[in-house]
Amino acid sequence: MLTANNYNQNVHVVDKSALVEPAAGAVQQAPAIKQKKAPVTAHFGRYHKKMETDVIVKDGILRQFRHYARSVLPQESHLSKNYVVTDSIVDELYGDMVLCEMRAAGLNVDKLVMPADACDESGESSAEMHKSLSTLSWMIDSILDSGIDKHSCIVSLGGGVVNNLCGFLASSLYRGISLVHITTTMMGQADAAIDFKQAVNHPRGKNLVGSYYPACKVVCDPATLTTLSDRHLLNGLSECIKHAITQSPEMLEFILAGIHNMRDTKYLEAVVRMTVEHKAPTLTDYHASDFNEMCPQYGHAIGHAVEHLSWTPGYGPALLHGEAIAIGMCVSAEIAYIMDLCDESVVDKHYEIFEKAGLPVYIPSTMTLTEVLEKLTYDKHYLRCKPTMGLVTQIGNMHLDEENKCYGIKIDEEILNAGMEANIERRQ
């Protein structure tokens, strides 16, 4: 079991010196308050403790989930009504099984099923079109109508879309109830469910509305990955490769050595474990080091922009998230080279890695640089008219600005353009 400490909490302590005690024998009135010139500071904590996420990676755990369900859900939720939330595709595969297993464990559980009826470019069903405020509103209405209390738990069952929606849902109901992820895709197990960034999409861009809220438990069953297409496996492997490029050349070597046999559950379980082990330390404290923000976001500034631009109304994105992030990482490498932060061999290695994995590496010809730049302005790291990005100096290492002691670099527009143009030139 792997644990990530997500938040350091402060406990509110009352300053008793601010109260003036009444004289002996005097009629007791409301206590007089000493006037202080200093500002008053309130420290808010959540449950007066650190919030932690325990990640359980176990092949076949869903088939015998009745033996684990009570330890996975918080004890306070055992007597409350809980909800398994899934999409229509995952529901056909695991919905009733998980529901029955949890009820067999003596838990009070209902199921809520959201649609997954849109098709991506490959013709596969997708829930991405439903990752929206309207779906979130429907979920809230459905659960409030069915009954809930502050000790209820939301259990997401599915991939990244369901995980993100349920995370935002749990953070919103009663200002925060318990959250458990049972994640069934490579993207969920390697990235979305492990993180505590919860969000929905907006017409302006990807993941623009959301909250920071960790799950108390994340359950990863590598057996569920066998139902995925090669494309959707690679979609999640892209995020695994991201952590290898930014943190571990040894991990990258392992991923690429076995990628030809990526349907082997032993291989997938090992990759998921390695990714969680590298990702978990980056979830501790963004204030301690911006590495914890820049590392998980590597390639995401450009990636989110091209992903959103690939959307077709009524069908969703032509590029899956991991595919778009692969493109974003290649462009990021071009930018690092232009800024003289890495050798050209590092740029070439990026293209070699993703082409070997079967992931796209070029900005699609259907997009203009102006369109990509416009979408970049909605990125949360777009500060003072410039995107802030982390860049790689060599495989396994990100650039540290020694003067400012930070990993985030503000990128000028001309350098952004030059990086994207270099990517497009390789395409031609």
Structural class: alpha/beta
How large is the count of helical segments?
14
How many structural domains are formed by the residues? 2
Low-confidence stretches: 6-22, 41-49
User: What radius of gyration results from the CA coordinates?
Assistant: 24 Å
What is the terminal-to-terminal distance?
47 Å
Outline type? globular
Quick one: how many beta strands?
18
- How would you characterize the largest beta sheet? 7 strands, mixed
CATH class of the largest domain: Alpha Beta
Estimate what percentage of residues fall within beta strands. Answer: 15-25%
What is the third-level CATH name, the topology of the largest domain?
Rossmann fold
Strand order of the largest sheet: 1-2-11-8-7-3-4
What's the pLDDT, averaged over the residues?
86
CATH architecture of the largest domain: 3-Layer(aba) Sandwich
Protein name: 2-deoxy-scyllo-inosose synthase
Cofactor: Co(2+); NAD(+)
Organism: Porphyridium purpureum (Red alga)
GO molecular function: 3-dehydroquinate synthase activity; metal ion binding
Structural notes for this entry:
The strands form six sheets. Strands 1-2-11-8-7-3-4 form a seven-stranded mixed beta sheet, sandwiched between helices. Strands 14-15-18 form a three-stranded antiparallel beta sheet, with no helix packed on it. Strands 5-6 form a two-stranded antiparallel ribbon. It has 428 residues and is of the alpha/beta class. The longest helix has 18 residues, at 230-247. Helix 4 crosses helix 5 and helix 6 (230-247) packs antiparallel against helix 7. The protein has 14 helices and 18 strands. A hairpin with a 2-residue loop joins strand 9 and strand 10. The chain has two domains: 51-228, Rossmann fold, CATH 3.40.50; 283-427, Dehydroquinate synthase-like, alpha domain, CATH 1.20.1090. 39% of the residues lie in helices and 18% in strands. Residues 126-233 form the 3-dehydroquinate synthase N-terminal domain. Its cofactor is Co(2+); NAD(+).
